[in-house]
Amino acid sequence: MATFRQSVELTIPALRRYARALTRDADIADDLVQDTLVRALRSEHLFLGGDVRSWMYTILTNLNRNRLRSLARRPAMSSIEDNDAPDASSPESGARDIERALASLVEDQRHALLLVVLEGLSYREVADVQGVPIGTVMSRLARARAQIKSFLDGERPTLRRVK
Amino acid sequence: MIDRELPVTEDELHAFVDGELPDDRKEAVSAWLAAHPDKAALIAAWRAQADSIRARYGAVVNEPVPERLQLEQIIKNDITSGRGRSWPAMAAAAALVAFIAGGSVGWFARAATSPSPGVLDTFTAEALDAYKLYVVEVRHPVEVPGSELAHMKQWLSKRIGYDLNIPDLSSMGLKLIGGRLLPGPAGAAAFYMYEGPSGERFTIYCAKAGAPETALHFKSAEQFASFTWVDDKIGYVVSGPADRERLEAVTKMVYEQVDKGEPKKG
After folding, report:
1. Which one has a higher pLDDT value, A80 or A52?
2. Do B56 and A13 touch (CB under 8 A)?
3. Are residues A52 and A19 in the same domain?
4. Residue B109 burial by Cβ neighbours in a 10 Å radius (0-12, 13-18, 19+)
5. Which helix (H) or strand (E) holds B202?
6. Residue range of the domain that includes A19
7. Does residue A11 sit within a domain?
8. Long-range contacts of A88-96 (CB under 8 A, 24+ apart)
9. Ramachandran bin of B185, using left for φ above 0, alpha for ψ from -120 to 50, beta for the remaining angles
10. In this structure, how many other beta carbons lie within 10 angstroms of the beta carbon of residue A48?
11. What CATH number is given to the structural domain containing A12?
12. Domain check: are A24 and A58 in the same one?
């Protein structure tokens, strides 16, 4: 049987992936993972069994929410590039578009969508991580998908399907 | 098939994409989609979104883990920074259950006494401002760390002019980070911060209040909530994440501990 620390260690690559998609910045993402690991190790004796992975996602999700609340009080800064329309001619435009589409989501919706499609958690697990009923997870997911779709459709009129 | 005739909800379409539908329903939804090309296109769009997200971020798991994220390193840094420590585990959980079972009648009966909203509103607003300001602090959330409990109790009691009890919430998994002195509605206010295993933070704000005693008031915003009451001319506000059940449990514990203090100077 794996020890607590081994179980925590196994989650690190996936936590980095989740954090990278949440923050869209490699350094901020790793800071978040680092804080998550520090907290998990300090709280080892409070972990009463269950799924270490879900618990790690819970900590990271909470820390990210705290981080954003503190950012919200600072003057908003966005690079000029962010305000440009997606550049469909660039080879990486697909990757950049999805980044911007994710950035346009409300935080709770971004958490829900990424936990499901990127991290492969079940609706039940996401509900536990977010501390809300499954119905709330599903409505966040639905809103996230609708928002991304309208973001991508709206910003890229050339690709809009004509019926 | 009868199932084919059942209306398919949008929730089911999401569950279909995410592999959360039971097998028997999967076939029905597939068949239904064949007859509804607009919804099939929607599903294709959702799948394309998921594919783009995975294409963009999926490879992060294959990157080597940087040194600063290796557990050895994390443990070493945590100890050198002097922040590594442990606190008592869930030893008193049974006592809390007993309190809730036996003591809740008296606790809620208090809520029926006459309220004094003006005083409480100001009080709660000040406390929530403090909560919002300090709860996001990573490096300096408090002035005096929880490890200097005796000193903090003495200092804050002197400044508030009242023998304060700083509650121990470790049986609920909440560790005292520490406290600070703040300007209150009428003089100084004491502010304590606690942290749970997932990084969630709760605060207690207390100061002399203009009313002798009031009912318990609940106030909630989207992200956080608080309970406020005045007892023996001292107002208390317990604030935390907007999970009412948990906040109520924390508040009960705070209430019980500040109430059974030593003889008070008033």
Report:
1. A52
2. no
3. yes
4. exposed
5. strand B201-208
6. 1-74
7. yes
8. A88/A156, A88/A158, A88/A159, A94/B52, A94/B55, A95/B52, A95/B55, A95/B56
9. alpha
10. 10
11. 1.10.1740.10
12. yes
The whole-number average pLDDT for the span B156-170 is 90
B240 φ, ψ (degrees, to nearest 5): -175, -175
Is A79 exposed, middle or buried, given 0-12, 13-18 or 19+ CB atoms closer than 10 A? exposed
Give the three-state DSSP class for B207.
strand
Q: What is the ipTM of this complex?
A: 0.84
pLDDT digits (tens, 9 = 90+) for A47-78: 767 788 998 999 999 889 877 766 665 554 44
Dist CA B199 CA B79 (whole Å): 19
Closest chain A C-alpha to B175 CA, distance in angstroms:
10
CA distance B114 to chain A (A): 34
Q: Cβ(B198)–Cβ(B179) under 8 Å?
A: no
Nearest CA in chain A to B44: A149
User: What would the two tokens of residue A163 be?
Assistant: 């019926």
Q: Is residue A44 part of a domain?
A: yes
Q: Please tell me which of the candidates B69, B78, B83 has its beta carbon nearest to residue A12.
A: B69
**Band of residue B216 on the pLDDT scale cut at 50, 70, 90:** confident
Residues B255, B125: Cα–Cα separation, whole Å: 20
